[in-house]
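step=encode ok
step=design start
structure_in=
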């Protein structure tokens, strides 16, 4: 986690994906939810209310240790994963909705993340300090809004250039993402100490699996009548902002204690959600 090369590679991958998103989408496309208030309410209900509520119940039922409870609380408070729309695409979801929901959640994170953490602080003993909204805003702006806005500006002022570089940028982002995922697998394979850190025990593992499964179900059923929208909300509900969660961990002297929970969620989230993504893609092809 502390390797600067890996950190730079993660930053470059997210920046390229977000910049490509801005270059390939118009501003009107990212105001999609404003024109569908009912869908917006259901979307925010699933991601910002149901998922934190699920975590509260799981932490209480399984009596999770403070470090694990803190990790899940931070994930519940960190919506709008920067590369979440790539998983939406893999599940066959409606991309216009997925892109807009991701950006909406990134904007709301400035207020929502500290608010959700305050609620968790009032219920459980967490191992981190309270988070300042300005710190959250700065991190979200750096990894999401700046590259997306740069892409929008290129598309608006240099449309011909945007047409030429849009697809190559998307391909580059996909390649970097694949390399990053392979890098994670390699690191897990060659680092026994890290694998030991991920052994959180059966109760924590079961809680994470249930968090993913129930969050998927929440998004699926609140997504509406079409599978294209259900897939978007289901995947977005589980795609928590891992970068923001790591940033919050870095704000506290005790942040390293719950990093294994974050990594375990990242791994198990991908494994548990894969059958849903395959099923969704196949259903939409029929």
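sequence_out=
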């Amino acid at each position: 986690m502390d390797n600067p090369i890996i950190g730079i590679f993660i930053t470059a991958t997210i920046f390229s994906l977000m910049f490509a998103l801005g270059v390939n989408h118009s501003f009107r496309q990212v105001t999609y939810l404003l024109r569908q208030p009912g869908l917006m309410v259901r979307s925010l209900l699933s991601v910002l209310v149901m998922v934190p509520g699920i975590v509260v119940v799981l932490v209480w039922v399984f009596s999770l240790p403070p470090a694990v409870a803190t990790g899940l609380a931070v994930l519940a408070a960190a919506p709008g994963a920067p590369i979440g729309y790539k998983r939406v695409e893999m599940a066959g979801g409606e991309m216009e909705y997925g892109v807009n929901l991701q950006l909406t959640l990134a904007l709301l994170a400035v207020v929502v993340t500290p608010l959700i953490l305050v609620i968790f602080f009032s219920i459980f003993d967490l191992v981190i300090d309270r988070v300042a909204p300005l710190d959250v805003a700065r991190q979200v702006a750096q990894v999401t809004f700046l590259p997306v806005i740069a892409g929008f500006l290129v598309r608006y002022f240099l449309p011909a250039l945007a047409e030429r570089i849009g697809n190559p940028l998307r391909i580059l982002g996909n390649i970097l993402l694949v390399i990053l995922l392979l890098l994670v697998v390699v690191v897990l394979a060659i680092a026994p100490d890290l694998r030991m850190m991920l052994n959180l025990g059966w109760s924590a593992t079961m809680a994470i699996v249930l968090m993913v499964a129930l969050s998927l179900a929440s998004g699926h059923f609140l997504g509406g009548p079409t599978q294209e929208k259900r897939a978007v909300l289901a995947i977005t509900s589980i795609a928590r902002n891992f970068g923001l969660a790591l940033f919050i961990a870095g704000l506290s002297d005790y942040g390293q204690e719950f990093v294994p929970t974050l990594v375990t969620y990242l791994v198990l989230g991908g494994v548990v959600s894969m059958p849903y993504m395959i099923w969704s893609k196949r259903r939409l092809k029929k």
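step=design ok
step=annotate ok -> The chain has a mean pLDDT of 83.
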